[in-house]
Design brief:
The protein is an alpha/beta fold. The chain is built from ten helices and seven strands. The strands form two sheets. A five-stranded parallel beta sheet has the order 2-3-1-4-7, sandwiched between helices. A two-stranded antiparallel sheet has the order 5-6. The structure holds adenosine monophosphate. Adenosine monophosphate binds next to helix 3 and helix 4.
């Protein structure tokens, strides 16, 4: 086990418009630090696919590009964060999306849900998240979203313009046929970007006022963005104890 997988990490909140690369960067953070990515979009899509009561309430809202209600999403996140694999830390991808969700998250984290109760952070209840916002030019976002393809089997993300699969429309890892997300259609994309501006930008302002916001220029090459994000995470994470 490397030092990075021993220390308590984050929690990390990834903010940014749809298509900014949150999912891709989250997967790299998972690989380096061995903490789970908790994507509310993925959790909701899974509920829709399984026809759960939550999925049935969320489906139409998601198809329109609107946000699912705060209560429903918060309940789903609370349940997920209490699972064992989130004890050392976790990455929230797509949450919080409203100021109300951000306030709820602060309250939830104050109770100290990390495994390492010996850590000073958990004792003081200071579980302030590391908030990273990825900014990307509007026209590039549209290109990324219309070109996005996802592997339905392993979740790997491709892009027909910038990161195509080696063999046309099939996953490099498992050969599954790549799919376009229902809400990555042109009309819905417009709505999702508008929703981001209206409801999620204020979330970044909320964190900025608390001096917790770190902004990354997501227009740069993937590896550079990753490097900057890792540096920021390590700067804020609890050191490995006893070393
Ligand atoms: P995403 O995969 O993060 O782009 O999310 C896809 C869709 O799921 C969004 O357009 C919303 O309809 C819904 N969704 C995801 N996360 C949230 C959230 N934190 N609050 C409300 N709705 C959400």
């Amino acid at each position: 086990m490397s030092n990075d997988t021993l220390r308590n990490i984050g929690p990390i909140v990834l903010l940014g418009p749809p298509g900014a690369g949150k999912g891709t960067q989250a997967k790299r953070i998972v690989a380096k630090f061995q903490i789970p990515q908790i994507s509310t979009g993925d959790l909701l899509r899974d509920n829709v696919a399984r026809h759960t009561p939550l999925g049935m309430q969320a489906k139409a809202v998601m198809e329109r590009g609107d946000l699912v209600s705060d209560d429903l999403v918060e309940e789903m996140v609370a349940e997920r964060l209490q699972r064992d694999d989130a004890r050392r830390g976790f990455i929230l991808d797509g949450f919080p999306r409203t100021v109300e969700q951000a306030i709820w998250l602060d309250g939830f984290l104050k109770h100290g849900i990390f495994d390492n109760q010996k850590s000073k952070k958990a004792k003081s209840g200071d579980m302030a998240p590391i908030v990273i916002r990825m900014d990307v030019d509007y026209n590039k976002l549209k290109l990324r979203l219309t070109g996005r393809r996802t592997c339905p089997a392993c979740g790997r993300i491709y892009n027909v313009h910038s990161q195509p699969a080696s063999v046309d429309e099939a996953c490099d890892v498992d050969g599954a046929k790549l799919v376009i997300r229902d809400d990555d259609r042109e009309e819905v994309i417009q709505e999702r970007l508008a929703t981001y501006d209206r409801l999620t930008r204020p979330v970044a302002d909320y964190y900025e006022r608390k001096r917790r916001l770190f902004v990354v220029n997501g227009d740069r090459p993937l590896d550079q963005v990753t490097e900057e994000i890792f540096r920021e995470i390590l700067r804020h994470s609890a050191p490995v104890e006893g070393r």
